[in-house]
Design a protein that fits this description.
Elements: E1 2-14, E2 17-26, E3 29-34, E4 41-47, E5 52-55, E6 57-62, H1 75-84, E7 87-92, H2 103-116, E8 120-121, H3 133-140, E9 144-148, H4 165-177, E10 181-185, H5 189-201, H6 208-211, H7 218-235, E11 238-241, H8 247-259, E12 264-267, H9 299-307, E13 313-314, H10 341-353, H11 359-373, E14 391-401, E15 421-431, E16 434-438, E17 441-442
Parallel strand pairs: 1-4, 1-5, 6-7, 7-8, 9-10, 10-11, 11-12, 12-13
Antiparallel strand pairs: 1-2, 2-3, 5-14, 14-15, 15-16, 16-17
Helix pairs in contact: 1-10, 7-8
Bound molecules: zinc ion.
């Protein structure tokens, strides 16, 4: 039989486990799963001997900055970086300009993605626009909504006031009425401000190094999360608990899940991927950025939460900034986060060899749980015949080190993990039958990426 793409000799993920199978792809779909050695001709053939063929990774949390902040990233560069580490679909966060809180603004972001994305995408809506637009944005295809408890307006402004909790409650009511998930970054401005005052009282400058690790503490995030949990229960809204990395927060969602109150939790948005660090690299060179982060999470608790199913998904929190947006000497007026997507998928693979979780769990947290929750299964999140031919092919044995000389695709060309030892590497990214990345080289075509919605996944 003739196929557009044949992937031979790989250990292929199936719902029953990993099996050595050959895959035949016709057009954008998986046409055949066959015993190795079956006669199959392919216009293109990948020999995956010694490798694992996983359903395409999906990043549930990244900032692509498009539209409006494209000096930091855009749909093209951001999805190129994603493809570089095995990601086949992304869900960009809504802190863009304009904020996708109206149907019109949401569709503007969708159109930007359709024009530039090299992999599939679904932008996250924001529920703080006109209340009637929540339903419209959901109907247009948004998989879910997100807001930040920090401030009423995007992009973030740490000196602005807190988002009115009553308005959050209304947004939960609107999402509940639309039967939509809503995620919230838990935050308490009073704790945030107190940390700044503490730095001042110690006579230290309010720079990133002195301030940042005091923010997003356990008591701040968990305290806020308890309130969100109650609002969600009261309104009957499907709460997507995000940024779940603090110990009390993990305990809370564990309790809620045992009670049957909630279904989806994401964690690890970049936090435990690196060790806490106060290092500030050479920003002027544009090569490195600050990688020190907020209050230290309890990594062991996060890994355990992932292993036992309390945490369902992981996100990159790819959050790049242009060098001009970055002022490490002024914690209140600088961008938080860094470019993550060029390495995110590789790190998730490396964590398997580091003993954090096993390969089956990797597949669950990168694709299956997402696709099942947001109505995209089995089109996404499976290797089932007839579904989208999205694959992340990994070599679990490759040992390598991230270096300054690495080729990256993020717009700012920043490399946040120089010197990190890696064990396991993504070698191919296949999106709907098209090989977008092979051995570190991304050949993305802007506009190839499709807007995938729960509605078009039926
Ligand atoms: Zn984020």
């Amino acid at each position: 039989m003739n196929f557009d793409l044949v992937i031979k000799n790989g250990l292929v993920y199936t719902e029953q486990g990993f099996y050595k199978l050959d895959i035949g792809v016709k057009g954008e779909k998986i046409a055949v799963l066959a015993q190795p050695g079956t006669e199959m001709e392919g216009a293109r053939v990948i020999d995956a001997e010694g490798k694992h063929v996983l359903p395409g990774f999906i990043d549930c949390h990244c900032h692509l900055r498009d539209p409006g902040l494209t000096q930091k990233e855009d749909f093209y560069t951001g999805t190129m970086a994603a493809a570089h580490s095995g990601i086949t679909m992304v869900c960009p966060q809504p802190n863009t300009k304009p904020v996708p809180s109206t149907l019109e603004a949401y569709m503007e972001e969708v159109e930007a993605g359709k024009a530039k994305a090299v992999i599939d995408f679904n932008p996250i809506g924001n529920p703080l626009g006109p209340r009637e637009d929540v339903q419209k944005i959901k109907d247009a295809g948004a998989a879910w909504f997100k807001l930040f408890e920090k401030v009423a307006t995007y992009p973030y402004n740490t000196t602005a006031g807190t988002l009115d909790t009553h308005r959050i409650y209304q947004a939960f009511q609107d999402c509940a009425a639309a039967d939509a998930y809503c995620s919230v970054h838990p935050f308490d401005k009073n704790f945030f401000d107190a940390a700044v005052e503490e730095v001042k009282a110690e006579g230290k400058p309010v720079d990133l190094k002195n301030t940042r690790y005091r923010w997003y503490s356990d008591e701040e995030m968990t305290g806020a999360a308890y309130q969100l949990a109650y609002f969600a229960r009261k309104t009957g809204m499907k709460w997507y608990a995000m940024h779940c990395w603090m110990p009390g927060y993990v305990d809370l969602v564990r309790m809620l899940k045992e009670r049957g109150d909630m279904t989806i939790v994401s964690s690890m948005e970049y936090m435990p991927a690196i060790d806490p660090s106060d290092e500030i690299y050479d920003i002027a060179s544009g090569k490195y950025i600050f990688v020190g982060h907020d209050a230290s999470p309890d990594k062991e608790k996060i890994w355990k939460g992932i292993r036992d199913g309390v945490i369902d998904m992981v996100g990159s929190d790819h959050a790049p900034h242009a060098p001009g947006d970055y002022h490490p000497e002024d914690a209140l007026h600088t961008g938080a986060g860094f470019a993550m997507l060029d390495y995110f998928g590789h790190l998730l693979v490396s964590h398997v060899n580091e003993g954090c979780y096993d390969l089956n769990k990797l597949v669950e947290i990168t694709s299956v749980n997402f696709a099942k929750t947001f109505g995209m299964y089995p089109r996404k999140g499976s290797n089932i015949v007839g579904t989208d031919a999205d694959f992340t092919i990994v070599d679990m044995n490759d040992e390598w080190v991230i270096t300054e000389q690495d080729k990256v695709y993020t717009k700012t060309q920043t490399i946040p993990y120089v010197g990190r030892k890696m064990h396991g590497r993504v070698t191919h990214t296949v999106v709907r039958g098209s090989v977008v990345m092979e051995n570190g080289v991304v050949n993305g075509v802007p506009g190839y990426g499709k807007f995938i919605t729960p509605q078009n996944s039926k």
